[in-house]
Amino acid sequence: MGMENQTRVTEFILMGFPGHPLTRVLLFLLFLVFYILTLTGNFIITAVILCDRHLHKPMYVFIGNFSFVEIWYTTTTVPKLLSGFLIERDTISFAGCFLQLYFFFSLGATECLILTTMGYDRYLAICNPLRYSTIMNSKVYTNLALSCWITGFMIYVIPIVLIANLPFCGPNEINHFFCDASPLLELSCSQSHTIEIICYTYTSILIFSIFFLIMVSYMNILLAILRIPSTTGRQKAFSTCASHLIVVLIFFASIIFMYVRPTAKYPFDLDKVIGVFYAILVPLINPVIYSLRNKEVIRALKKTMWSRIGFPKMSH
Ligand SMILES: *[C@@H]1O[C@H](CO)[C@@H](O)[C@H](O)[C@H]1NC(C)=O
């Protein structure tokens, strides 16, 4: 607090997870394993979907893009977190901090938009099967995927420029493992809370509208599934959508908990734990939920792997 110290902060210190050196090394190893698994899983899925021509269909193109976003989404936070475990004083420059914030939020927004598109795509496929292939032709799904990226990278430009222009006069210790919006807003020495309120309102409206759109798609899907007469048809449709819905619910539960709230604060260590959920764990389990439960992806995966290793054919 206090405006007496008017020097501008030039770097921030990320507190991360302080603790005994041994605990930190163990956490380093744990998160390193998570990170390697996340990269491997998402990279394999992206590559398989790009390489297998049978998977050049809207649903897989979206899943491929989703996995590709996940690779970059975790990469904005985890490498810095990992290096922080090994050094005493983990600093990040002012510009670096806001770049991290920008990419984290933009990639997160892109991810939400792709999830929305996937919901809409499944809605069309299940509720409008006869017209599906004409509506969702290759031009349409390419444009949809592109617009998720473009919109995702534009949505947060203004809020982040606003936050970066707030006065930061110290202290400069961020009690979090990356430059997230709420600990940064907390550090600003601005007397007015206008920007803070604008940013929370903006994010809340955005998150709730996207969540609402996704839920409308899945509600319609659910109603359509209940009307399918055959049990096997019902089960098949249900199992794809259930896995999509699980990812959506975990992701939105954590970001709603984190970002849709007034200035009332949770204890910061709880923030860090939730941060681990949406920044690290969701990208880790996504490939499993989205793809490995999907027979076509598994089939393509086996085919690609066996043909690379040199076996001529793989019986199922
Ligand atoms: C992402 O979407 C674009 C546009 O539809 C597509 O060309 C590209 O292959 C997709 N990427 C992946 C990894 O599926």
Report what the structure shows.
Residues 41-290 form the G-protein coupled receptors family 1 profile domain. This is Olfactory receptor. It is a multi-pass membrane protein. It is found in: Cell membrane. The protein is mostly helical. It has a single domain, classed as Rhopdopsin 7-helix transmembrane proteins (Up-down Bundle), CATH 1.20.1070. It is built from 11 helices and 3 strands. It has a 3-stranded mixed β-sheet with strand order 2-1-3. It is globular. Bound molecules: 2-acetamido-2-deoxy-beta-D-glucopyranose (NAG). The site of 2-acetamido-2-deoxy-beta-D-glucopyranose (NAG) has 11 residues, from helix 1, helix 2 and helix 5.
What's the topology here?
Layout: E1 11-14, H1 21-51, H2 58-86, E2 91-93, H3 94-127, H4 129-135, H5 138-155, H6 157-164, E3 173-174, H7 181-187, H8 194-227, H9 231-259, H10 268-292, H11 295-309
Parallel strand pairs: 1-3
Antiparallel strand pairs: 1-2
Helix pairs in contact: 1-2, 1-10, 1-11, 2-3, 2-5, 2-10, 3-4, 3-5, 3-8, 3-9, 8-9, 9-10
Bound molecules: 2-acetamido-2-deoxy-beta-D-glucopyranose (NAG).
2-acetamido-2-deoxy-beta-D-glucopyranose binds at residues 46, 49-50, 61, 64-65, 68, 141-142, 145-146.
Keywords: Cell membrane, Disulfide bond, G-protein coupled receptor, Glycoprotein, Membrane, Olfaction, Receptor, Sensory transduction, Transducer, Transmembrane, Transmembrane helix
Membrane topology: Multi-pass membrane protein
GO cellular component, one term: plasma membrane
CATH superfamily: Rhodopsin 7-helix transmembrane proteins
Instruction: Report the biggest beta sheet as strand number plus sense, adding barrel if it closes.
Output: 3 strands, mixed
Distance between the amino and carboxyl termini: 65 Å
Attached small molecules: 2-acetamido-2-deoxy-beta-D-glucopyranose
Strand content: under 5%
Average residue-wise pLDDT: 87
SSE string, helices as H and strands as E: EHHEHHHHEHHHHH
The total strand number stands at 3
Annotation field: number of helices = 11
The order of strands across the largest sheet is 2-1-3
- Output the radius of gyration: 22 Å
The coarse overall form would be: globular
CATH fold title: Rhopdopsin 7-helix transmembrane proteins
